[in-house]
Design goal:
166 residues; alpha/beta; Rossmann fold; five-stranded parallel beta sheet; 5 helices; 7 strands; 37% helix; globular
């Protein structure tokens, strides 16, 4: 693919860019499709939710069958859908909860939270661009700090009742 308006665009670099999408909801699904259209071939989803019956009409990577039986994990359903759309994409999924300030962690949850933090840190370190596409400001806090620590390009797009930022 060559771009008439930008003949100097290095499409090989675009294709090799490793993108981490924090959130596989409305924004995550839309951003993933756009990235695929731009030629990005390595997309990783992080989301802790499952596909519900209201999602397929708003989130283009999900279908009704993703809702059945309690719902498929969103990150996995989104990655599978991208692979079905373009089999050469390297789409992967991680179902982890992002620890948030102000949310208590019980002693029973400590090990899981620590493991999720370690996974999140490793994912951010191993990707080139981080997209913060989650529902709340609190869920974007830790990924922002980790991305800054690792010197990663971080893009924030948020729509919600508590924030509107694009």
């Amino acid at each position: 693919m060559r771009w008439r308006l930008m003949p100097s665009l290095q499409t090989e670099k675009v294709a090799a860019t490793r993108c981490l999408l924090m959130g596989a909801g409305t924004l995550g699904c839309s951003v993933a499709r756009c990235l695929l259209g731009w030629g990005v071939r390595h997309i990783t989803f992080v989301d802790s939710g499952v596909v519900s019956y209201s999602n397929p009409v708003r989130q283009a990577l999900f279908t009704f069958k993703d809702c059945v039986g309690g719902g498929t994990p969103k990150a996995q359903a989104a990655a599978d859908s991208l692979s079905a759309i373009f089999p050469s994409v390297k789409a992967s999924a991680h179902r982890i909860a992002i620890p948030m300030p102000g949310h208590t962690v019980t002693a029973a949850e400590e090990d899981k939270v620590r493991a999720d933090c370690a996974t999140l840190g490793a994912l951010i370190e191993s990707h080139d661009v981080i997209f913060l596409l989650t529902d709340t400001r609190e869920s974007r806090w830790l990924p922002t700090l980790l991305a800054m620590h690792h010197g990663k390009l971080t893009l924030n797009a948020a729509l919600g009742f508590d924030s509107l930022l694009v």
